[in-house]
Structure to design on (814 residues):
């Protein structure tokens, strides 16, 4: 009896003496993805999870919670315990774009930023017979014909639409936004000639640029994108401050142990820069970009503020 | 041809072959258990295969996908519980057949029809894939609107004796379909501030509640303590009448065509294919009133239609890089992980893999012939021998597990329960349930398409009927609504002779 009590006491003391994160992680980590299975965020996160499992020496269970442009998953995740065993792999839109149009229960403060992983620009593309080829010609054509052209995008108030509208507003362009369910659906309607301009991710439309069916005058990043030769980056058009990217990050719930955050950020950094992951990202037109901890928080905040401005102007 | 013989030699090796057999069996089980569905199973299993030979991974997808489309028919026939949304139409005639002691015959027809639909679809994928893919591009928002309306017109044939109740049920489905974020304005509708409602009500959750709970409650009402003995288990072969199988051939051809047609359109799906095939079989029949009372043609049409959707739904994904449903999206993501770029070059980029996957869709359909029947009668039919007091809690537990794992949240269980009681009540007052689900599927499709079409036409309504394809679709829709009325009027004019 006494022996057992002493034993329990000793174990308890030993457990308390060691810092909490020394054993971390000693059980399965649950990774919430605020999108359905099979999409870009899902594929990137699952591939990264395989590498993280190896480096952390624990298993990672993936939970897809789609709906509401990512807000359903984000709202559900914010209630998780900040013990490091619940992580959130998201793209930027649910955090910086969706709150502009939806009344969501979370804010940027509801999460602990850990590390961003990769990023890519959006692009605007047209059929080869479109009367403009360079970025400057394209914007001039749109400017000269207000309300004439339709452009497909990933959804109303989505990051893609806001990325395009930031450029359009700066140039005083009026184009008709047609929201679709995703880049695949936009591509289908663009190829079929139902909308004039494709707006969406680069990787989806890239095969049709290579086959000569489409040309892309513009990307939404400041710099040019090597994969899309003819496309102007925004810097070349004098619009460098209107850059809007699609990027991905891993976050935790509010109030995580800073030591665990730092350790996770470093492991994510290693995994993202693993040659196999970099190669995988390249097939999707993405490049690694790891921004950690507070710097990530600042990046989220500045994007949030910029998009708040454009969506207010759009009356969303 | 060399394309396929080369691919075949890679598919007929130990790894892909065992994966196909195992996955087809697994697929039948997944389809047969209400709540578990192929999308979920593939999403869970596919990442485990990222490090394997891609042909093994794709063999698994093909097997689960094809197997489950057939598997859904088993509980639909035996218990009137559709295992997947695509097998709702199978309950209409499958269960009445089982009820009069022809369960084994119904299962056999379901098995053959599934295999035939799957084979026809795989052949279409292999021979006309890229060409059919280009055809899908002509379908813009205006055309999708008419497809949705055409689908809803088929409600007319499943409302049973009381059209008013049928329409009320369909409207209930339409209303449920409006819950959640509106994709065109970004506004939340009917969510009452509840975050979990932002994504709308999950189709599978509502389906399991609405369709599985009422039959379970009816079983419970019987208070059956003993179950069927081996002798009572009505699996004795009811022989096919002479010419009966030959009579199914036109139905199979029609349903395969419809399934492939629906399949190639991104965004439609097996459930719509099954409803439309069933509808077409009924309209073509000399004796439409026998449908819903155990007509084998009904089972054949529904099961052939939903399997014919499968391989065809891969056409836009493989030929254009446009995934038409979640399974196709998962296949594309698996190909991306293996370093392939989806798009028009995919066929040339890696013919072994793409051709191999097509062969696997074909072979797993053939496997349904071999494995499907045995699994249904040797395993699942035996569950009927369980006494009701054991069967009821077993099914309830399976339902709860299935529904919980979809989104991993407990609130879905309450939604299922509420849908279940609603379904039980609706059945007691003789409301048909199928229009509810159809409304849920087609309502959002019709609404979003028409609003997109009007955005593109800058509010000009005439564009909905002046485009060539949309004009044809509109005319066919009118025909489908008017044809049964014409038939009815003719029959009334002729006095019935006995």
């Amino acid at each position: 009896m006494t022996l057992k009590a002493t034993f329990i006491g000793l174990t308890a003391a030993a457990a308390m003496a060691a810092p909490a994160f020394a054993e971390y992680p000693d059980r399965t980590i649950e990774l919430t993805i605020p999108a359905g299975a099979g999409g870009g965020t899902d594929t990137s996160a699952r591939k990264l999870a395989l590498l993280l499992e190896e480096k952390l020496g624990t298993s990672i269970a993936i939970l897809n919670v789609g709906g509401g442009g990512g807000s359903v998953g984000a709202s559900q995740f914010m209630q998780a315990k900040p013990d490091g065993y619940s992580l959130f792999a998201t793209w930027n839109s649910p955090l910086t774009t969706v709150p502009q149009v939806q009344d969501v229960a979370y804010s940027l403060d509801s999460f602990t930023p850990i590390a961003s992983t990769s990023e890519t620009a959006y692009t605007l593309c047209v059929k080869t017979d479109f009367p403009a080829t360079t970025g400057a010609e394209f914007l001039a054509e749109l400017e000269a014909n207000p309300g004439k052209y339709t452009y497909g995008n990933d959804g109303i108030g989505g990051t893609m639409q806001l990325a395009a509208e930031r450029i359009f507003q700066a140039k005083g362009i009026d184009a008709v936004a047609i929201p679709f369910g995703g880049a695949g659906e936009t591509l289908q309607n663009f190829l079929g000639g139902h909308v004039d301009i494709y707006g969406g991710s680069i990787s989806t439309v890239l095969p049709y640029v290579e086959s000569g069916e489409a040309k892309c005058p513009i990307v939404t990043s400041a710099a040019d994108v090597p994969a899309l030769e003819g496309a102007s980056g925004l810097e070349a058009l004098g619009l460098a401050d209107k850059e809007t990217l699609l990027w991905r990050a891993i976050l935790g719930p509010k109030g995580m142990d800073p030591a665990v955050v730092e350790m996770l950020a470093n492991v994510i950094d290693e995994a993202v820069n693993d040659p196999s992951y970099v190669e995988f990202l390249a097939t999707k037109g993405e490049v690694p970009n790891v921004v950690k901890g507070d710097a990530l928080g600042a990046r989220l905040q500045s994007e949030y503020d910029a998009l708040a401005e454009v969506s207010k102007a759009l009356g969303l | 041809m060399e394309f396929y013989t080369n691919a075949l030699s890679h598919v007929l090796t130990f790894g892909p072959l065992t994966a196909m057999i195992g996955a087809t069996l697994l697929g039948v089980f997944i389809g047969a258990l209400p709540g578990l569905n192929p999308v979920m199973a593939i999403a869970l299993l596919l990442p485990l295969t990222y490090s394997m030979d891609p042909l093994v991974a794709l063999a698994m997808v093909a097997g689960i996908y094809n197997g489950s489309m057939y598997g859904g028919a088993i509980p639909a026939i035996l218990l009137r519980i559709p295992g997947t949304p695509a097998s709702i139409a199978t309950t209409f005639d499958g269960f009445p057949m089982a009820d009069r002691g022809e369960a084994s015959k119904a299962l056999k027809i379901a098995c053959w029809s599934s295999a035939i639909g799957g084979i026809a679809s795989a052949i279409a994928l292999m021979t006309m894939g890229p060409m059919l893919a280009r055809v899908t591009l002509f379908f813009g928002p205006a055309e999708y609107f008419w497809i949705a309306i055409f689908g809803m017109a088929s409600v007319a044939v499943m409302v049973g004796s009381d059209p008013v109740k049928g329409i009320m049920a369909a409207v209930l489905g339409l209303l449920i379909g409006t819950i959640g974020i509106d994709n065109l304005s970004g506004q939340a509708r009917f969510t009452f501030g509840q975050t979990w409602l932002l994504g709308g009500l999950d189709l599978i959750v509502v389906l399991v509640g609405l369709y599985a709970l009422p039959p379970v409650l009816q079983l419970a009402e019987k208070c059956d303590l003993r179950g069927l003995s081996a002798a009572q288990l009505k699996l004795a072969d009811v022989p096919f009448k002479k010419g009966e199988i030959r009579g199914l051939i036109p139905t199979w051809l029609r349903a395969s065509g419809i399934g492939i047609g629906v399949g190639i359109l991104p965004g439609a799906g097996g459930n719509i294919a099954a409803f439309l095939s069933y509808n077409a079989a009924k309209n073509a029949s000399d004796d439409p009133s026998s449908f819903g009372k155990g007509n084998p043609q009904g089972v054949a049409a529904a099961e052939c239609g939903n399997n014919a959707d499968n391989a065809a739904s891969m056409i836009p994904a493989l030929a254009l890089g446009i995934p038409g449903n979640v399974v196709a999206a998962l296949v594309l993501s698996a190909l991306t992980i293996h370093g392939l770029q989806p798009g028009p070059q995919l066929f040339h980029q890696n013919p072994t893999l793409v051709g191999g996957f097509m062969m696997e869709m074909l072979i797993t359909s053939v496997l349904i012939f071999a494995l499907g029947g045995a699994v249904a009668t040797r395993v699942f039919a035996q569950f009927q021998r369980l006494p009701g007091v054991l069967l009821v809690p077993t099914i309830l537990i399976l339902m709860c597990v299935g529904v919980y794992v979809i989104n991993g949240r407990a609130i879905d269980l309450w939604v299922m329960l509420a849908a279940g009681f609603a379904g039980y009540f609706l059945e007691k007052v003789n409301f048909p349930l199928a229009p509810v689900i159809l409304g849920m599927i087609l309502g959002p499709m019709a609404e979003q398409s028409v609003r997109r079409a009007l955005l593109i036409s800058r509010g000009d309504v005439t564009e909905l009927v002046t485009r060539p394809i949309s004009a044809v679709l509109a005319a066919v829709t009118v025909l489908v609504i008017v044809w049964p009325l014409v038939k009815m009027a003719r029959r009334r004019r002729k006095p019935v002779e006995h």
